[in-house]
Design goal:
By secondary structure, the chain is of the alpha/beta class. It contains 7 helices and 12 strands. A 9-stranded mixed β-sheet has the order 2-5-6-8-7-9-10-11-12, sandwiched between helices. The chain has a 3-stranded antiparallel β-sheet with strand order 1-4-3, with no helix packed on it. The radius of gyration is 21 Å and the shape is globular. The model has no long low-confidence stretch (mean pLDDT 89).
Length: 285
């Protein structure tokens, strides 16, 4: 993806070096024809000269039975999963290309909902992929490791989106300490948030002077629902999620916790993904 390309892979199970290709070459021929066609559509309005197009797709793989080969092929890449356009803003930062990133759905949902994600979107981001399929844009503000989250850049990203007709209340999301940055921005902008989603969250922030844990009352007063998705081996569960849950409910806030039986090395299961997505869909107005 760093060079803006796409790669699809078919691996024949149990096959040696020969025979090459497939006995039935139609899947390969169909792929060639499809990618010889001119790309459809135009660039989104929010993209300018500084935005470079690339692609985003999941790591999911599928097994396809090859009748003529009498074996299975393990298939992955954009030839077998949904592939979305991604636009990254280039900057003159000394830290490199750390600008805004936006992943675009195939079809935009009514109201133009979007996820404001505090950390880079990975290929195993199951919740984000489900939301893309439901018409959400995924927006990642500039990520600058040396100085952490920068409020001005987040504000600029928010303004860009609403100036182009996007929902004025995005969903905020973050993993680990990035969830703390999502909380910090929400505390500064409680009227601009639909809900907050944290994955194994640790509520620490370089954006804010104090801990987000000290300012939960502002979120509760604004009626912002919280969702924490925690793995069995979440190291911060007791000190963070349980504390937030207890304090937020005392403040009259709404909070949901999904505690997975699996650890962080396993993908988010379909049931947990569905619960998280339905929670988010229900909070977006």
């Amino acid at each position: 993806m760093m060079m803006s390309g796409r790669v699809s892979v078919m691996i024949k199970e149990g096959a040696g070096h020969h025979p090459h290709s497939l006995r039935n070459p139609n899947p390969i021929a169909d792929w060639i024809v499809e990618h010889l066609l001119p790309a459809a559509g135009t660039r989104p309005e929010f993209t300018g000269e500084k935005f470079i197009k690339s692609y985003y797709y999941s790591l999911e793989s599928t097994n396809v039975w090859l009748k003529e080969e009498k074996t299975w092929a393990n298939c992955r890449g954009p030839g077998f999963v949904e592939c979305y356009d991604r636009y990254d803003e280039t900057t003159s930062s000394q830290w490199g290309k750390t600008g805004l990133a936006i992943v675009v759905p195939k079809s935009v949902a009514p109201g133009k909902p979007w996820m404001f994600r505090a950390d880079a979107i990975t290929r195993d981001a199951a919740i984000d992929q489900a939301l893309l399929a439901r018409g959400f844009h995924i927006v990642v503000p500039p990520l600058i490791e040396q100085s952490g989250a920068v409020r001005t850049q987040w504000n600029n990203a928010y303004q860009l989106m609403i100036d182009h007709g996007f929902a004025k209340k995005p969903v905020l999301e973050g993993t680990s300490t990035a969830a703390g940055e999502a909380y910090a921005w929400a505390i500064e902008n409680p009227d601009k948030v639909a809900c907050i989603v944290g994955r194994n969250p640790a509520l620490r922030s370089l954006m804010a002077k104090g801990s987000p844990l000290e300012n939960l009352a502002l979120l509760a007063k604004a009626g912002i629902p919280l969702l924490h998705v925690c793995d069995r081996d979440d190291p911060w569960f007791n000190d963070q999620t349980k504390v937030v849950e207890q304090d937020y409910k005392k403040l009259g806030g709404q909070m949901t916790v999904i505690l997975r039986e699996s650890d962080g090395r396993t993908p988010l299961g379909a049931e947990d993904r569905t619960r998280a997505v339905e929670f988010i869909i229900g909070k977006v107005k």
